[in-house]
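Anyone? Bumping this.
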Amino acid sequence: MSAGSGSRNTNTEPWGSFDDNLIQGGGSAVIDMENMDDTSGSSFEDMGEMHQRMKEEEEVAAEAAATEDDNPDDGEFLGMKGIKGQLGRQVADEVWQAGKRQASKAFNLYANIDILRPYFDVEPVQVRSRLIESMIPVRMINFPQKIAGELYGPLMLVFTLVAILLHGMKTSGTVIREGTLMGTAIGTCFGYWLGVSSFIYFLAYLVNAQITMLQMLSLLGYGLFGHCAVLLITYNIHFHFLFYVLWLLVGGLSTLRMVAALLSRTVGQTPRLLLCGTLSLLHMLFLLYLHFAYHKIVEGLLDTLEGPNLAPMQRVARDVPELTLNATLRNLGASLRVH
Amino acid sequence: MAAAEEASKPFAGLSDVSISEDIPVEGDISVPVGSSRRDDEFSTLDEPVKETILRDLRAVGNKFVHVLYPKRSSALLRDWDLWGPLLLCVTLALLLQGGAADSDDQGGPQFAEVFVIVWFGSIIITLNSKLLGGTISFFQSLCVLGYCIMPLTVAMVVCRIVLMGGSGAVSFAVRLAVVTVSFGWSTFASTAFLADSQPPNRKALVVYPVFLFYFVIGWMILTFSPSQ
């Protein structure tokens, strides 16, 4: 309604005539009916819509319809006005449509919550048992394993991972230029979850594995539980040996569980190797990356590794002596000069 | 008594319907005269601006008190507003501003970060509670979560005062204690308000993101160190 009322208040040229139409009523309706023949039938619908939209103008329009028969001969005189009126109406229509689209998009987003609700239909006990099961690989690959299609657990695990990453970034003194820690953490975690899920799903589709996108999201999401546990421990206890043990043990177990589930749903040697190899490689490397990317000790290494390529995300250790910082700056300068 | 008998006359047909004595008959009858008088009372057209602002501030302050004494009252839910949350969020973000060692390029993100964490965090928690079948409206939940940051904002103020004294082990211990208490307080208060609107078997699922949310904020406050 707001677009309609707004259009009446403005006094630019096309709108002005539009106003005239509505106020004078009589003539414009006549011309509109005439013009309808050479434009298209859709202006009839426009007319109908206009009637619905502008409730205040309804009486005027009705009056117009009534007077249509009374003065059919001044159509020639009002021809110009009629065209302008149509232009005005088109503009008004566009404005209205745009506004309506925006509003309905926002509303749909909220209304669509109901569509997502089944995926969040869990009990605390179920979540707990699924978290534990995510660390227990099942050696049954002849019959398709059951994978729960649920999103609460994965989503919460991703948010937990974001929080843990933030913690790791802060304690390691990571400074990210042109970005926030929060944005980077969220981007990394959601990017991994959604990206790898879609990728594996795509691969699974190629090799004809029986898995849905929802199941893939759930499987990978619960697989992040191991990551959360390992990172939470190793961000606080800085033993490399401990990390490697946990990486192999906990990360390996959660990867094995996913691999077993995928194996049971794929047929053939090569597809299995392709699918499970990709997944386990990505999953294990991601844990390795998360640990070392935001860890105190290896920041210098990372600088050299991704210095020139990822200029906007370059990390500068806060605690390293002047010498290293200068080296970093020199690197940056060199890379700038190269560009 | 006579009036009561007269009043029951229109329902003479229902006279054989018996209501046992031990069931109290209750109801709320709104009198039309009262409503017009209330309109006069609430007319804010001719009152001074100061009064309007003060009334709003009083409402916000009143809700602060509700957070400090988190008894299961519905005042925070019934007439929600987002002024209090905005005030608290901006205060917290300003207090956290100017932290970090190299403040020149951490200054911007710090404020934005706090702001984004608070608002997006609340929105995510709210959506989560809606998805789990909560009966609370979107802005009510946002209001409650926003107001319940107050203990953490207070903790931030205390931390800044403590940090002025110095940053040794003792100061860290004090800050840790303060932040832990206020974190617990925030979580407890928000669950006290939000728990009623949730299905009873799923409270743990709703509380977890709330816990995570306040934990992140509390942790940010704890690790805050002012630039020298």
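Late reply, but here is one note on the structure posted above: The interface with chain A takes residues 101-102, 105-106, 109, 112-113, 116-117, 124, 127-128, 130-133, 138, 201-202, 204-205, 208-209, 212, 215-216, 219-220, 223 of chain B (CB under 8 Å).
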